[in-house]
Every structure is written in structure tokens, then in C-alpha cells.
Amino acid sequence: xxxxxxxxxxxxxxxxxxxxxxxxxxxxxxxxxxxxxxxxxxxxxxxxxxxxxxxxxxxxxxxxxxxxxxxxxxxxxxxxxxxxxxxxxxxxxxxxxxxxxxxxxxxxxxxxxxxxxxxxxxxxxxxxxxxxxxxxxxxxxxxxxxxxxxxxxxxxxxxxxxxxxxxxxxxxxxxxxxxxxxxxxxxxxxxxxxxxxxxxxxxxxxxxxxxxxxxxxxxxxxxxxxxxxxxxxxxxxxxxxxxxxxxxxxxxxxxxxxxxxxxxxxxxxxxxxxxxxxxxxxxxxxxxxxxxxxxxxxxxxxxxxxxxxxxxxxxxxxxxxxxxxxxxxxxxxxxxxxxxxxxxxxxxxxxx
Length: 352
Fold this sequence. Notes:
Blueprint: H1 33-49, H2 53-66, H3 71-83, H4 87-100, H5 104-116, H6 120-133, H7 138-150, H8 154-167, H9 172-184, H10 188-201, H11 206-218, H12 222-235, H13 240-253, H14 256-269, H15 274-286, H16 290-303, H17 308-320, H18 324-336, H19 342-349
Helix pairs in contact: 1-2, 1-3, 2-3, 3-4, 4-5, 5-6, 6-7, 7-8, 8-9, 9-10, 9-11, 10-11, 11-12, 11-13, 12-13, 13-14, 13-15, 14-15, 15-16, 15-17, 16-17, 17-18, 18-19
């Protein structure tokens, strides 16, 4: 399924972590090691929440020097290392925190480290550990759903996304990814239902409306598909995939002038967008202006030599212009790049 975006990869991890709140300590003339550790820890939290992880690490380290078993300091220093993308040091600290106190949040944080390291088996194990301690952890359920979605185990993905929503009923990203899972199972009604719920709880996210449009487009409800794509563009006029999808839906609906406007608008914003030029090639093929279609497809290929759909469309234009050998070469290249419909043209129109 093309053009379906899975939200979890673009969610900022920091939004999933609740930094511990500062604990109040009494200031005395002579501070004990515990009080010094607490002061450094509180200051470290302030720097962490102010997006200064380097200074936070320094202060958490001082806290640990004064209080070697300060598990909250190890945990938050791990978060600071994650912000710096120093995942090896983050893993050391989260393991130390877990030795001192095993919590669902610590295991979830460990899973995020493995997520960034692309260690899927270890990520799965850490998420399962988190759920053993708290089966209602919404993010742990969500990330397990995302993991199984990537494994193409859609039934397990559905199960964990649904558990995430049970734990957090307004979880927009879980609704979105649940919709994408139903889309992969070709259950368009449930896909649309969940995308609409996602849009209800996150009405400012362009990718959700783009996904909703793709579900309606598969259902051949082009009016609603175009409406959803238009909303995505209104939210973010630089969300270029929505222009492409809107143009494609308009072609399928028969609105060639509207499709041309979508593609030309995108080109005015991004003159090097290969997909937009290929979209125009598709419009010109429908209008039987094969010379112009060939020109637009060639421009798309010049911008992206791996645009298989552009080779496919140029092959059609060249065939209609009686450039049979060149058309066959284009279709062979399109098939090489994964455009399987090119094979039928090769079988029927190409001698070799």
C-alpha cells in the first residue's frame, strides 16, 4: 500500500517521557551528600527540560557521585543521552536504573533506545517487560503495535493498537496506525473509521488527513478523498504528497483540469519534484497529448532516474507516438524498478 504514513516513526520521543518533577530540599548551612545530590538532580532536571542535555548530564553525574544509588538520576541521565543520540551511554544508565528499581517506564525507555539502535528483538523484549509491570501502558502497547505492523503481523498489530487506545482513549496516533493496519487488511470501512477518529483527536496533523484520503480513494469515493487531501494541504501547504494524491484522485475521477492544477501548484512550490511532473504526464496521456506527456515524463526521469512510474508513462506516450523500440526500453526499465503493470505491455507489444 503506497503513501500510508506510520506516525510512530515521526513522533518525538521526548513527548512520550514525563520528566520527574523536582523534589524540594531544605537549604542548610552544611548540606549532606544526599541534599547535595538532590540539589544537583533538580538543577539537572531544569536543564533537561530546557533542552540542554549536556549540562543536565554534568549535574546528574554530580548527583550520582554524591548518591551512587540515585536511580532517578541514572534514569534522567539516560534521557539526556537519548537527546544527544548517545544510545550506548543511555543503555548503560537505564540498565543501572533498572538494577536499582524495575519500573514499566524504565523498561519502556530501554525499548526506545533499542528502537533507535534498530534492535527489534531487544526492543520487543523490553516492551513486553514494561507490559508485564503495567499492561495498560499506552505507549508500550502502541510501540508493540508498530513493531508488529513492520513485521506485517497485522492481527497482533491490531491487538496492541487497540490496547493502547483502551488505555488512552484520545490516542490519535494509535487510531491513525490502527487505520493503516485495517487498510493493509483491505478493511476500508474500519480504516476510514479509525482515521476519522485520529483526525478528531489531532485535527492539526496533515498526514492523518492524507491517510484518510487514501482510504477513501481506495474505496473510489473520490469526492471525500479529495476533500481529505485538501484539508491536509490547508494544514501544511508544504505537505507535498497530498498534492500528488489529490491530483491522482482527480485523474481517477475524471477531473483533469483539477489534477493539472494540483501538479502545477506543487511544481511552483518545488520545481524539482519528480512525482509532480510524472503526474502531469498522466494528465496529458488522458488528454491524448502524447508529445507533452513524453516531455513531462522525461523531466520526471531527469529529476529522479529511479522513478519507475515515469518510465511506464513515457513508454505509453512513446508507443502512441510510434516510438515502439524506445517504448519497450522504458517499460523494461519500469519493470526493473518494480512497476509490475509494465509486464503486460512488454508481453504484448515487445517482440523480444
